Amino acid sequence: MSVAFRRESDEEHKEPRFELPIPPGPNLVTERGLALIAAEVARLETAVAAEADEASREALRRDLRYWTTRQTTAEIAPPPTPGEAGIGSSVRIRLGGAERTIAIVGGDEADPAADRIAFSAPLARALIGAEAGERVDFNGTAEAIEVLEVMP
């Protein structure tokens, strides 16, 4: 039989499983974010110990490596200056005629659907340092966002 038709195993044809990518830059978190990371590490450690299937256990270990790294590298963000938007603050804004309240958080606790945005997101970067009553540029538009209130 020709070597071209021989297959040693199915393993050689599986897609490689890469590590989960770690976002570049500092891993700034809020107190809440650090607690969420710790809870995820604990959940994954329990799941790895309980999993009987080796493939599933390896996938859980991969996730655990990611979250353990995030926990190890986490830095609590310094509190923002009172009255100034920063990591850990909530900002009530008017954008495009609609009001919304945005919480600026660390990357791992971001949930845009719940208006919790990572400090590295364009909207958060536009808001950081702003104070109530200011208008800030966003998305190429001058004074697109009106900052109505900054809360700790």
Explain how this protein is built.
Residues 1-24 are annotated as: Disordered. One of its GO terms (molecular function) is kinase activity. This protein has 152 residues and is an alpha/beta fold. It has 2 domains: 19-76; 90-151, Chitinase A, domain 3 (Roll). Helix content is 30%, strand content 25%. The protein contains 3 helices and 7 strands. It has helices at 31-50, 54-73, 122-127; strands spanning 27-29, 74-76, 90-95, 98-105, 116-118, 135-138, 141-151. A 5-stranded mixed sheet has the order 5-4-3-7-6. β6 (135-138) and β7 (141-151) form a beta hairpin. α1 runs antiparallel to α2. The protein is elongated and about 55 Å long. The termini are far apart. The model has no long low-confidence stretch (mean pLDDT 92).
Descriptive labels:
five-stranded mixed sheet; alpha/beta; two-stranded parallel ribbon; Chitinase A, domain 3; 25% strand; 3 helices; 152 residues; 2 domains; single chain; elongated
Q: What is the CATH class name of the largest domain?
A: Alpha Beta
Major β-sheet annotation: 5 strands, mixed
CATH superfamily of the largest domain: Transcription elongation factor, GreA/GreB, C-terminal domain
Shape: elongated
Task: Output the number of helix runs.
Answer: 3
What ranges have pLDDT less than 50 throughout 5 or more consecutive residues? none
- Secondary structure: helix percent: 25-40%
Q: Tell me the distance between the termini.
A: 73 Å
Protein name: Nucleoside-diphosphate kinase
GO molecular function, one term: kinase activity
Biased composition (Basic and acidic residues): 1-18
InterPro entries: GreA/GreB_C_sf, Tscrpt_elong_fac_GreA/B_C, Tscrpt_elong_fac_GreA/B_fam
